[in-house]
Amino acid sequence: MDLVQIAKKSAFTALQGGVDRKPPWLKVRAPGGSNYAEIRRLMRGLGLHTVCEEARCPNIGECWEHRAATFMVLGDVCTRNCAYCAVAHGTPVEYDPEEPVRLAQAVELIGLRHVVITSVDRDDLPNGGAEIFAECAMEIHARLPDTTVELLIPDFKGSERALRIVVEAGPDILNHNLETVRRLYRMARPGGDYQRALELLRRAKTMNSDLVTKSGLMCGLGEEWDELLGAMHDLCRQRVDLLTIGQYLRPSTNHLPVARYYTPAEFDELRDAGLRMGFRHVEAGPLVRSSYHAWEQARRALPV
For residue 54, what pLDDT is reported? Predict the structure, then answer.
């Protein structure tokens, strides 16, 4: 029986209470080291947030030692409450219009050649904070013209105007994560919409056909194998260039349980399937996240 048959037989249905014991391939070393400590001090000193910390990313030790970090702008409180996400939710405070300048300073001090910038959802703002994304990209390009910029944006509630503000700022890569399959969207992302996410990616390509677009999926929320492949096909139809696929890890008992842990071999199957579909690059593995090895993905996807 091959991997696909095994996956279909198990149906990837959620077990009552989920699966709590992590397999050995998900064990990571505790963060530490000189680069980790330096970046942590720098973020505190400049009053910046990273999704690495706020979302409790398991790769924080590896990435920060590599001197790579994913910045999170517009505060650390989200207006939405996705059932899988560790970021705090509630009523955000006023955003700081000087944040793009401080962020660009941090990029320069760390010496990043590729930077990933994301945000909480800010449905309280007229354009969802699109202007801050744009200002970050323009500030970094003006200060560090050889540094490539990847913007991992929210859906801006489907606003075409907000998306155009971001696209016209000239990011090198535009990322919006689909996250999960259509059937599970209302459960996992009650503030989001599956079709709206796909439409954002389609519109971005329409606005700039040369723009490199990217998206990501989580495995282990209860999706079936065919549903996962279907979501990949949906992304491919929007001409998405880069795809990341990783294992969902439950941040706390207040979040959705893990229905199933995928094996490294199964992630290899998904990567190969994505490449056959036509994605330019697929990063798939148990610990893969949107910005995991993003610098390598950028190197492969962007012109020299």
Answer: 46
CATH 1.20.1440.120 fits 32-301, yes or no: no
Cα separation, 32 vs 35, in Å, equals 8
Looking at residue 28, its pLDDT comes to: 60
How far is Cα 170 from Cα 147, in angstroms, rounded to an integer? 12
- Only one residue has tokens 């969902």, namely 248
pLDDT value at position 243? Answer: 96
Domain boundaries defined on the chain: 32-301
